[in-house]
Structures are given as C-alpha cells and as structure tokens.
TrEMBL record:
NCBIfam families: NDH_I_L, PRK06590.1. Residues 138-418 form the NADH:quinone oxidoreductase/Mrp antiporter transmembrane domain. The keyword Protease does not apply. GO terms for cellular component: membrane. It comes from freshwater metagenome. This is Unannotated protein. Keywords: Membrane, Transmembrane, Transmembrane helix.
Amino acid sequence: MTSSLLVYLIALPLAGAAILLAAGKRSNSWGHLLGTATSAASFGVGAYLFTQMLGRATSDRAIEQRLFSWIAVGKFQVDAGLLLDQLSICFVLLITGVGTLIHIYSIAYMSHDHDRRRFFAYLNLFIAAMLLLVLGNSYLNLYVGWEGVGLASYLLIGFWNQKPTYAAAAKKAFVMNRIGDMGLSFAIMIAFATFGTVSFAGVKEHAHHASSTALTAMGIMLLVAAAGKSAQFPLQAWLGDAMAGPTPVSALIHAATMVTAGVYLITRSNFVFDAAPNAQLAVAIIGAITLLFGALVGTAKDDIKKALAASTMSQIGYMILGTGLGAAGYAFAIMHLLTHGFFKAGMFLGAGSVMHGMDDEVNMRKYGGLAKFMPITAVTFGFGYLAIIGVPPFAGFYSKDKIIEVALNAGGARGILLGGAALLGAAITAFYMTRVVILTFAGAKRWDAKAHPHESPVLMWLPMAILAIGSITSGYFFSRGDALRNWLAPVVEHGHVEEQELLSPEVTSLLALGLVLIGVAIAVLKYRREVADTAPTNVSIFTKIARRDLLQDDFNEAVFMRPGQAITSGLVSVDEKVIDGAVRGVGAMTLGSGSAIRTTQNGYVRSYAAAILIGAILLIGAIWVVVQ
C-alpha cells in the first residue's frame, strides 16, 4: 500500500503542469491555485510516507515501487522504478515543502504577470522532475529527472525571454549544465561496462570487486555532473546570470533544490567514492575551491540577488566539501543542505520582497534604511543572515560548523588546507552577508525620491516567516542526539566510522565564531556610514576582478569560446571549399559537358546523317580491328 503511493509524489505536480499547459489562457483565473494545490498535495503524500517510515524498523524503512519494464536490450535491462529511503525522503520533504511555500509566495509576487499560469506550470514541472531525480532507483532513472530539471530551469530562468539578456542567461545555464550532463552520461556508461547494471543497488553490491581505475573514472564523471548542476568550479559561471529569472525561481532552483542535486548525486554514490579515494579527494578540493570562490565574488556584488547567488555557490561548496570528507561528512553535508534550504530560500524571498517594495530595483546601493519601512522582511531576512554566518543557536551554526570540524580533523596537510579554507570562507561569508544587510536595511536611505518602499502582502511575508522559523530551529533539531546522522546512517555509513578528534567541537566552534565576528566587524566599520548610491570607481584591482566574477567568463571566452569559434570557422571553410567544392565541381563538370554536347544538336538533317555515317565507319573500323 505504502509503496504504491510513491508515484503520486511525482504524478500530482506533473499532472498540474500538464493541465495548465494544455488549458492555456483558459486557466489564467485559476492556474495558480491548481499549481499550488498539486505541490501541497505532493507534500502531504511525502509527509504521510515519512510518518510511515518512522513506524518501521531501521532496516525496513526503504521501499521501492516498480513501474514498468523500461529498457530490455540484451544484457541491458532497466526498469522504471522508484526508491524511497532515509536519504530521498529528506529531499522529498524539502522539495515539496519549500516548493509549496514558494508557490504561495508566487501567487502574490506574479499577480500582475499575464502569463502567471504558465509560470506555475513550469514550477510544477520543475517539482515533478526534481522528485523523479531523487526518487529514481537507478542512475538512468535519475538521469531522466536530471534532464527534466535542466529543461524546467531553462524555461524558468528565461521566463521573461522577451528581454534578450534574460534569454541569453537561460541559454548559458542550459549549455553549461549540458557539459555536466555529459559527465553523468559517461558515468552511466562506465557503470554498465564495469558492473553490468546501472541500478544503485547493483553498483553498490559489486563496487568492492571493481578496479580502482574504473571506480575513479566513474567518480570523476559524477563529480563533473555535480559541478555542472550545483554550480561548482569550474562550471559555476551560469549561476549569477540565472538571477535573470523571477525571484521565486531563484529561491526554488538556485537556493533550495536544483543546485543541491549534485550534493545528492555524490551522497547517493557514496559507495563509489568510498572505494575511490582519489575521486573523493577531488570532490573535497572542488568544494573548498568553490566555497572560497563564491565568497570572494559575493564581497563585490551590488545586485542583491547576485550577491545571494554567489553566497549559494559558496554554501554548496561547503556541502560538496562535506561529501568529499567521506562517511564522516555525508550526513553533515545533507544537514547543511537542509538548513540552507530554509535560510537561503527565505533570504531570496526577502530579496524579492525588497524588490517588490522598491519598484524592482536590485542595486543595494540604492536601498538603505529599509528596515523601518519593511519590518517583517527585515526581521525574517535577518534570521536567515544569522543562520548563514553561523551564529548560535541559528541553523547554520549546527550544520556548517560540523563540516568545518570534520575538515579540520581530517589530519595532516589535508586537514590544514581543507579546514583552513572552510574557516576562511566563514569569515568572508560573515563580511559580505553583513554588507548585504547593512546596505539594504540599515543606514541612511539612498533611494530615488520616486520610490515608495512598503511591506509586502501577507501571501509573500507568510512563507518568509515560516522559512525564518526553520532558519532558527532546524539545525538544533537535526543535530539533537545526532538525529539526522543516525537517520541517514543506513544509507551513507557502512560499518564503523573512524573519526579523529584533533580539535574538539568546542574549539572548532570558537575558532569559527571568532572569525565570523571579525568578518562582521570589518563590514560594520566599512559600510555603517555608506551614503553613496553608486559603486566607487577608485577601487583595488582585486575588487575590480571580483566584480567581474573573478574573470570566470573572460577565462571561458578566451580558453573555450574563441578557440571553439575558430575551429568551427575552420571546419565551415573546409566544408565549403573542399567537400561542397568537390560536389559543386562534379555538378559544374556535368553541366559543362552537357552544354558542349548540346551544341551538336543543331536540328539539321545533314548533320545528323553525317554523324551517323561517321559513327558507322568508326564502328566498322573497331570491329575490323578486333577481328584481326
């Protein structure tokens, strides 16, 4: 009975998307209500399944549902099936719970958009695809959801595609994600070639028999896939541009759900990475690089959404780092993923609330003093801010500090470098997030006289308030008695986990909190009296580079785009001059010979008679030669 409900998790939002897209403009008056209802209903099913899991023994909590035989070609046998276990239920509740709150928020935020029902159809499509991604019982089933999420992301980022820059942002996200998707494709091929199966259970069962080369190759390809979907170095350049989409899209896709898909993929594939230490180390290094990369970019952004996007990149870096620390870090990576879903989604919705009250202005230098005019937005955003910088007892303190602790306790040069990067990232995060809060809600007003800031309607601030509660409480509940770690242990921990304690949790927390306070103090001293409504031009070379996203687009253009264009131009030239030239040459020769022969067809009988005579003489001569 319980397993038969799994399909409804996906079917409900998928049906909502299909109905809204099929009904078209006829659903303008009720489309937003249907979209929200189907998402809420999916959350209800997920909550019921969660309660059922709680009532079963730990070893009996995972359930599967076989839908149908999908691929049956020789030895390649794949069923379309769903798997709900302790890991996937965390994502189900996050996706549908936060997704429903964002649907409610969007009812008011998108109320004046004439295509609102289409927006809700795309939101439903995204929810359905993301659920398929985390519920698929094999890499191939996951891949279908993976591609569906990419499509929905493209549609939502480019929702206002009448603006060329928005359409270009959607295309950029789609193309860069396709690079990551190729990594997942190769990983699936390696899995089948090595294990003869692409199911999670099958790969896990045979992983300890496989060669280290195959496992490392598969792990690296999975990392490439995760880097593309989760905006990790070196495939992170699309995330800032993706802020072109409506703000609820940023909250749903680029804070709470889609960008966490890479973290899910690596955690789900823990049996591959645990058996491939080199690939696992590569994961940790990429996470450390990205958490610093995103934090540094965030220090220079004046666009509030792009500052939060850089923050997302950095926080996902912490999660990736956690997964790269092995069995000791998987649960804490997922904990940070869940707490981040609360506080970052809340802050993105808060940014949308500010834009709503400031006539869609996104430049923080044109804000200032908005707490007086938007108190609910300021308070809920503030709770998210305290959570992300890791102030106790807010959620980020429990989740991010545990990743820092595990990294520092990795020992040797690895512990020093990875733990040091995580600590430095905490300090920079405190600096740039304090900067965002001060420039937006504190200080003197810097907006134009035409602006009339005001608080958002209840349908917008109510989801923000609920997410703020999660920003305060979720970390405590997940960490109390190691609740989340014990919950996930059957999926991510195999046997006894050896842990070093070079630094105690208390020492780690004091180090992190000290650096956080330093970052906050520097930001307060620098921005507390900010009065300019434009960014200064006489800045350091580092600030100029950070404003340009540490030259990531310049690098991609110089190393990949321009050479790619040159190669393409060369191939086009070869095609036109050699291949097409040869074809055109044959045609020209045929036409030329035809024209020459056509001159002999003059219509005179004497010419034809002479030609016949000459032909007969030549024929007789040839026969004579042969006979002789």
